[in-house]
Design goal:
By secondary structure, the chain is of the alpha/beta class. The protein has one domain: Rossmann fold. The chain contains four helices and five strands, in the order E-H-E-H-H-E-H-E-E. It has a five-stranded mixed β-sheet with strand order 2-1-3-4-5, with helices on both faces. Strand 3, helix 4 and strand 4 form a beta-alpha-beta unit. It is globular and about 35 Å long. The relative contact order is 0.22.
Length: 118
């Protein structure tokens, strides 16, 4: 079983963050159904509710440090091409870390869920 890290944009206004959370929640659920042989992990799906409780949704450094550590434990990085993905500084950090660790990086179309290589 491969462990897959799902990278997606998150930062923005509270409304944007909430909308992105629900979008990646649905995409992650669909990916889990499409790839039952993999352990699919989305830090946004896991952390959005927790960030709301502890009140630090916008503490980029707090969350990125956890994301980088998690990528080190994963087998692959899948970047979801949803609105804002190509401008996300979080995705830039996650992609850089995965490259430094020689982890495969794939892209997921947010509408079709088609997976393509680098």
């Amino acid at each position: 079983m491969k462990h897959i890290y799902i990278a997606s944009p998150y930062s923005g206004t509270p409304t944007e963050m909430n909308n992105r959370y629900f979008e990646i929640l649905l995409i992650t659920a669909q990916l889990m159904s499409l790839y039952p042989e993999h352990n699919i992990y989305s830090p946004i799906v896991h952390s959005h509710p927790i960030a709301g409780i502890i009140g630090n949704q916008t503490d980029h450094e707090f969350w990125v440090s956890r994301c980088v550590e998690t990528i080190r434990r994963m087998d692959e990085l899948w970047i979801v091409k949803m609105d804002g993905w190509d401008q996300s500084r979080g995705i830039r950090v996650e992609k850089t870390e995965a490259r430094q660790l020689h982890k495969p990086i794939y892209f997921i179309d947010s509408l079709t869920l088609n997976k393509t290589g680098q």
